[in-house]
Design brief:
CATH class of the largest domain: Alpha Beta
Low-confidence stretches: 1-6
Distance between the termini: 53 Å
Oligomer: single chain
Number of domains: 2
CATH topology of the largest domain: Rossmann fold
Radius of gyration: 20 Å
Helix content: 25-40%
Length: about 375
């Protein structure tokens, strides 16, 4: 066991039947408790004490909170001119997944709660005002909704366009600086579970140190996997963006190296162009499904704009999940994944790497086709 030398903030996941009180009873200072995740953030933890608690079956895993940071590119945008709310659903991405056709058949997201972990939301935007239900600032603890970047509002608008009657909840876990700690993401996930979210969208990445104070990357990644697994076990459907760095998939797992999209319990979205559903050049490999992600029109504070990336593909998928849940709430999350993959149309792209060229085959989201498949199985 590697000693956690100089650790000041340690994330601890507890075994079932134990809780933060067990940590306190062993003299550990609990700074935050993530009750819905059965986890905690402790200060100045003694490595030997933590190891003993893991051996005793009290702790599942633990690690330095500093080893994981939320990352996000601070991309500026220009407002589109001559664009109004009536134009959004006419964007090519929404038409490609046949959102309007599925909505007309009752797949609207009615009664489904979608949590958006992002940079915030412009709750007063006319495109979102009727769908907005709540906001929690887990970075600065401000009471009123806001979006100091625009990304969160854009993502929320995409979900709303696909599932127009879904209830939108915004959880601010990312700043425009893009260097927030892992504990902020844990607060967001914990609150989303407590608030009864049905679907959670995460259009951001988490960087893990390759070798943080002697701890290998895989060991650090386990903390993220554990968090997502506990949210998924609570019944929440998790969607994440694959990332835009075109990293190669892990040969052992076939998953992207970018967290949280690399977590087994997360449904990860890659991005496609309009032309023949080709993969967007920067899409990381290791995704589960592909959805349109280039020049996607959606609201931002002050108007509307188009944005590109897997950050736009993920909410298309999250909205589709919400739409299905509103009509087929008896389906498990695993069953919904299977429906979306089975109904998605087949596509392929040639991917160039420095040492090889290969063909990647994948499924592209089609909400109307998913509705057809569900009707056939009914």
């Amino acid at each position: 066991m590697v000693e956690l030398a100089g650790v000041e903030r340690t994330v601890v996941f507890l075994e079932q039947g134990h809780g933060a009180y067990d940590l306190a009873s062993h003299g550990l200072a609990v700074e935050e408790a993530y009750t819905s995740l059965n986890a905690a953030l402790v200060m100045d933890a003694d490595a030997r004490e933590l190891a003993d608690l893991r051996t005793a079956g009290v702790i599942t895993c633990y690690g330095d909170e500093r080893a994981i940071t939320i990352t996000h590119s601070d991309r500026p945008y220009e407002l589109a001119t001559g664009v109004g709310p009536q134009d959004v659903a006419q964007g090519w991405g929404y038409r490609r997944v046949h959102a309007a056709e599925a909505n007309a058949r009752g797949l609207t997201g009615e009664g489904v709660k979608v949590g958006i972990l992002d940079m915030g939301i412009d709750a007063s935007h006319p495109y979102l005002i009727d769908a907005y239900r709540g906001f929690t600032d887990l970075v600065y603890d401000k009471p009123d909704p806001y979006d100091d970047h625009g990304h969160g509002t854009h993502v929320a608008g995409i979900v709303h366009t696909i599932a127009p009657e879904a209830e939108l909840y915004s959880y601010k876990v990312v700043t425009g600086k893009g260097d927030d700690g892992f504990s902020v993401a844990l607060r967001g996930l914990d609150k989303a579970v407590a608030d009864g979210m049905d679907v959670v969208n995460m259009s951001f990445g988490m960087e893990t140190a390759e070798d943080f104070e002697g701890r290998p990357k895989a060991e650090v990644d386990r903390l993220i996997n554990e968090a997502c697994s506990r949210v998924y076990d609570a019944g929440v459907f998790l969607v994440a963006s694959a990332g835009n760095a075109r990293e190669t998939a892990d040969p052992a797992t076939g998953l992207s190296r970018t967290s949280p999209g690399s977590c087994p319990d997360v449904f990860t979205a890659g991005a496609s162009w309009e032309d023949k559903d080709r993969l967007y050049n920067s899409t990381n490999l290791g995704f589960d499904i592909v959805a349109p992600g280039v020049d996607i029109l959606s609201p931002v504070p002050g108007g509307y704009t188009t944005w590109t990336g897997t950050s736009m593909s993920a909410p298309l998928v999250a909205g589709a999940v919400a739409a299905i849940k509103s009509q087929y709430n008896g389906l498990s999350n695993d069953e919904i994944k299977e429906v979306l993959l089975s109904s998605g149309h087949e596509a392929a792209s040639n991917v160039l790497r420095p040492w090889q060229s290969l063909t990647i085959e994948y499924r592209v989201l089609d909400l109307e086709a998913a509705a057809d498949l569900l009707d056939e199985r009914a």
